[in-house]
């Protein structure tokens, strides 16, 4: 089964499985297909994280997160007075980190793939070359972005060929098709060297970008040991730094374990209050302690220490909200030695892959590589560009996540796999910036504590707290009038979030071994399988 943000990408992945490909083969094909049919977040100009659990229980994770260019420096988004220059880290050429996706896919395939590389890239080539029909949601988004696409590009991208896209219009992406052909035929070199690299560097020069040929040549994805935690009957397997997601998720699930959420009921005042108060404390830790562990000593073991995690709830009152001003990061036991789209795949052998991949915000920096037809990320905004200054998700950070050359920016992406009794139980993850962690958290709780189906758990309403700002974001109706009023009486400020919180993709292994997909109704998401 394959669950992705776009029906065509799900079909591409399921077809690869049918032809004898394994979960990694399908993941590679889906990644490239999403770069065509779901350009908001599917990408070759961005990055991501992949969590793998093979059918024999062997684990691995792949970090293909973007890196700061070598000419990047701590104060690159500040003016002479030390003030943040608005939007510089968020839109345009200077917002772009060195892309990691193509090297990530090459490495994933070289290590675990079964089918030939070209066969996995070819569906994306065909979709880009022959064109594909726009869904209603995609047509609307392209129309909304038109102004920015014109503003940030001197060479007109295919996305503005029509003044106004309508559902069912066919979008052809000819330049992207040629780039994908180079990747298909030359692998890594088809992106990080030669014509594509030349086009990326030329695009940088047309704007104020700083990515060089050397930066591209030096980019390498990294295999990392997953973070794991036993929470009740479930073993949680997720992404280590530079993602904050895995550790934060384990912290949230561990805290909730001490409270009878299932007796309190789903999204009641009692259970929502507990979850919000836990989120407040976990995100305070995130702001202080999390960054790229290759550059900053993230106290991973300390942050995952059960006694430490439980100590974070000191000061928690079931009666009233704690003010975020009274909550700061904890001091985890120190240190051990030197030390946004999601897709879920399970193949017929039981190998499972959980991938979250992104350009950061929708359509990234809005910059297309002229002549190469793909969008570049705006991942630099995920760094802490000034201590305490909120990024586009309102997240704040400190030294741990300061900009440095070749450093990876902190992420909230939380591709996760759950085991129960040593067997594969769930593959889950989400898009949604800072809300990814709490989205994955609530979905896991929905299934493991409240008995929801996979689809029910993904569809159910969600809420979110991230320490700062001091409010609870809530989807319309997620908390209901009674719960909203009850939380307000405890001192929580509830802010409605129109358009949804996070978008998730999940697969649950049912007791009889069948797979149940959860595709998010907030988007065009779809499950495909056989
Ligand atoms: N760009 C969103 C994240 O990585 O958290």
List the helices and strands and how they pair.
Blueprint: E1 2-4, H1 7-18, H2 23-37, E2 47-53, E3 59-63, H3 101-112, H4 117-130, E4 132-133, H5 136-151, E5 170-171, H6 174-186, H7 189-192, H8 194-206, H9 213-218, E6 222-224, E7 227-231, E8 234-238, H10 245-257, H11 261-264, H12 269-289, H13 300-303, H14 306-311, E9 341-346, E10 352-358, E11 416-420, E12 423-431, H15 435-448, H16 454-459, E13 463-464, E14 472-475, H17 480-489, E15 494-497, E16 503-509, E17 515-519, E18 526-528
Parallel strand pairs: 14-15
Antiparallel strand pairs: 1-9, 1-18, 2-3, 2-10, 3-6, 4-5, 7-8, 8-11, 9-10, 11-12, 12-16, 13-14, 16-17
Bound molecules: glycine.
Pfam families: G_glu_transpept
Keywords: Acyltransferase, Glutathione biosynthesis, Hydrolase, Transferase, Zymogen
Active site: 340
Characterize the biggest β-sheet: 7 strands, antiparallel
Separation of the first and last Cα atoms: 7 Å
| Helix-and-strand structural type | alpha+beta
Number of domains: 2
If you compute it from the alpha carbons, what radius of gyration comes out, rounded to the nearest whole angstrom?
A: 22 Å
- Mean pLDDT comes to 95
User: Globular, elongated, flat, extended or rod-shaped: what is the shape?
Assistant: globular
Low-pLDDT runs of 5+ residues are 335-339
Q: Say how many strands there are.
A: 18
Please report the number of helical segments: 17
Helix content range: 25-40%
Strand content: 15-25%
The distinct ligands, each listed once, are:
glycine
């Amino acid at each position: 089964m394959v669950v992705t943000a776009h029906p065509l990408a799900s079909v591409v992945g399921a077809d690869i499985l049918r032809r004898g490909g394994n979960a990694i083969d399908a993941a590679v094909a889906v990644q490239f297909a999403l770069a065509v049919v779901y350009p908001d977040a599917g990408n070759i100009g961005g990055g991501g994280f992949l969590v793998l659990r093979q059918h024999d229980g062997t684990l691995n994770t792949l970090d293909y997160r973007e890196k700061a260019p070598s000419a990047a420096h701590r104060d690159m988004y500040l003016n002479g007075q030390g003030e943040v220059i608005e939007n510089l880290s968020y839109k345009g050429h200077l917002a772009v980190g060195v892309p990691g996706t193509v090297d990530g896919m090459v490495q994933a395939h070289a290590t675990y793939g079964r089918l030939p590389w070209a066969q996995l890239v070819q569906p994306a080539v065909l979709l880009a070359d022959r064109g594909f029909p726009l869904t209603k949601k995609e047509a609307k988004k392209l129309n909304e972005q038109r102004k920015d696409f014109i503003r940030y590009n001197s060479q007109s991208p295919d996305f503005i060929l029509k003044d106004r896209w309508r559902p069912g219009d066919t979008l052809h992406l000819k330049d992207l098709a040629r780039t994908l052909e180079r990747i298909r035929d030359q692998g890594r070199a088809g992106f990080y060297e030669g014509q594509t690299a030349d086009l990326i560097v030329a695009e940088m020069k047309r704007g104020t970008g700083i990515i060089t040929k050397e930066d591209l040549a030096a980019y390498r994805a990294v295999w990392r040991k997953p973070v794991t935690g036993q929470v009740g009957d479930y073993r949680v397997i997720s992404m280590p730094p530079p993602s904050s997601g895995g550790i934060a998720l384990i912290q949230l699930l561990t805290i909730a374990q001490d409270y009878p959420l299932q007796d309190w009921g789903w999204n009641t005042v009692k259970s929502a209050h507990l979850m919000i108060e836990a989120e407040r404390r976990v995100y305070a830790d995130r702001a202080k302690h999390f960054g790229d562990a290759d550059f900053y000593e993230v106290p991973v073991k300390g942050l995952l220490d059960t006694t430490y995690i439980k100590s974070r709830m000191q000061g928690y009152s079931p009666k009233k909200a704690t003010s975020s001003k009274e909550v700061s990061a904890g001091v985890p036991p120190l240190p051990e030695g030197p030390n946004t789209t999601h897709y879920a795949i399970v193949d017929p052998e039981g190998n499972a892959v959980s991938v979250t991949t992104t350009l950061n915000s929708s359509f990234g920096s809005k910059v297309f590589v002229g002549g190469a037809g793909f969008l570049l990320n705006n991942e630099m905004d995920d760094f802490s560009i000034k201590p305490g200054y909120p990024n586009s998700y309102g997240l704040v950070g400190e030294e741990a996540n300061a900009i440095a050359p070749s450093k990876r920016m902190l992420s909230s992406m939380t591709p996760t796999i759950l085991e129960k009794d040593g067997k594969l139980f769930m593959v889950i993850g989400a898009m949604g910036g800072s809300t990814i962690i709490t989205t994955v958290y609530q979905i896991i709780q929905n299934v493991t504590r409240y008995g929801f189906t996979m689809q029910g758990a993904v569809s159910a309403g969600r809420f979110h707290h991230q320490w700062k700002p001091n409010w609870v974001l809530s989807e319309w109706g997620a908390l209901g009038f009674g719960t909203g009023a009850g939380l307000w009486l405890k001192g929580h400020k509830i802010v409605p979030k129109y358009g949804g919180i996070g978008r998730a993709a999940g697969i649950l292994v049912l007791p009889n071994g069948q797979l149940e997909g959860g595709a998010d109704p907030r988007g065009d998401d779809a499950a495909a399988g056989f």
